[in-house]
């Protein structure tokens, strides 16, 4: 398996939507909203920050050149002296679950994001029932965080009552997690 990541291109969008609509993925994820189509996704990718200053990026994950996953990123501006934030959401094709692909892809992506902005704070959330995603979140070094109650309520309504958990990650915790993930070197036996 040769896992690589690249900024999402227009040619990837249909495969991303196919993945997002896969019933096995949808069980753990929000259904794309009605207005969310490949065309609107393309527009969002090419767009400028919205009125709240939030900008969007997506990263595609490939195995030997075939798209097997993606990571969506919404960047907040970090106004009034606050640190910039990046809200991440990810999906992987079922054929690739349980092989450490998402942790590998996120390790590469977060290295790039923290290089770009060492003060960035990365957020991730998952349904309470999503043990696999929570495990990925733990492996990457995230710590539990509290969602603003209004955001939490919005999620609760959108998910028809399924509870959601939020986590945060800064550069230091990411680095420590990467050290823990590194295989012991040969001299250590
Ligand atoms: C969540 C997801 C991205 C995980 O990616 P992945 O590359 O498969 O992650 P990993 O290979 O590291 O596996 C995750 C962990 O889940 C564990 N796991 C598998 N089934 C599990 C279960 N039923 N209960 C608890 N843990 C489970 C695996 O054992 C692994 O942990 P380990 O390495 O400590 O053994 C992928 O499963 C996926 O896309 N799922 C569907 C969509 C989704 O959930 N998106 C995220 C929404 S927040």
UniProtKB/TrEMBL annotation:
Q: Any idea which GO molecular function terms this record carries?
A: acyltransferase activity, transferring groups other than amino-acyl groups
Q: Which InterPro entries match?
A: Acyl_CoA_acyltransferase, GNAT_dom, N-acetyltransferase
Q: Where is the signal peptide?
A: none
Tell me where in this chain the N-acetyltransferase domain is found. Answer: 3-158
Instruction: Give the domain of life.
Output: Bacteria
Read off the Gene3D superfamilies from this record: 3.40.630.30
Q: What is this protein called?
A: N-acetyltransferase domain-containing protein
Annotated organism of origin: Stieleria neptunia
